[in-house]
Amino acid sequence: MQELLGNAWRSSAGQKLTTIDVGSQVQADGETVFFVRDHGEGFDMEYVENLFEPFQRLDSGQDHDGHGLGLARVKRIVVKHGGRMWAHSKIGTGTTLFFTLSAPAL
Fold first, then answer.
1. If one looks up domain 2-95 in CATH, what number appears?
2. What's the pTM?
3. Rounded CA gap, 59 and 39, in Å?
C-alpha cells in the first residue's frame, strides 16, 4: 500500500488540491477489488502493458524519483497472493490501480 500511495502522491504533486481515494468494491461474483485512485497527471492507456514491468516508467523521469521497480514489485506480491492487478488511466485526469487478493484457504 505504501508504494501505491506514494505513486498516487507523486502523480498528483502538480495539482493545487490532491485527492487520493482508497477503497474496495465487491463484484457481483463476490470478488473484492481494492483500488487506489489519484486525480493527477495520468498516462496514455496505449502503454498500460508496460506499467508493471521492471524499469519501465510512463513519465519523463524528470519530475519523479525512482527506477520503475515499485509497481513491478507490487504486482509480483499481489500475484504471489493469488491476485490480479491492473490499471485504468486518462491523461490529465488521473489513474486508478486495481488489485485483488485471493481468500486464504481454510
1. 3.30.565.10
2. 0.82
3. 15
